[in-house]
TrEMBL record:
Residues 1-102 form the Core domain. This is Fe-S cluster assembly iron-binding protein IscA. SUPFAM superfamilies: HesB-like domain (SSF89360). Transmembrane segments: none annotated.
Length: 103
């Protein structure tokens, strides 16, 4: 499993995690959203880790996903835009994209 995360993005995610007070273990879940013929966009959420989730820590940042999302996690790149503080999530080699029928 290869996830690249910049030091700045890791620091912000750890800060967000630090602010939470939960009884259960928490992790970040990155979900790929595809629509139409465009490239995937991503959402990131802080979740409670469920027993059926797979997980990993990268730079002390916990990530979790359901097994069917594993291919989307492998190769993910996470950075932080220094100008606006928003996360930049990308996958240079997405595992699968459906053929566009709109062309």
């Amino acid at each position: 499993m290869k996830i690249q995360i910049s030091d700045l993005a890791a620091a912000k995610l750890l800060y967000i995690l630090y602010q939470e007070h939960a009884d259960q273990p928490l992790a970040f879940r990155v979900m790929a959203h595809t629509s139409g013929c465009g490239t995937a966009s991503f959402a990131i959420d802080l979740i409670e880790v469920l027993p059926h989730f797979e997980s990993i820590k990268i730079k002390d940042v916990p990530f979790a996903w359901i097994p069917s999302e594993r291919a989307w996690m492998d190769g993910l790149i996470i950075d932080l835009n220094r100008d606006n503080g928003k996360f930049i999530l990308a996958h240079p080699n997405p595992p699968s994209q459906s053929q566009c029928q709109l062309s």
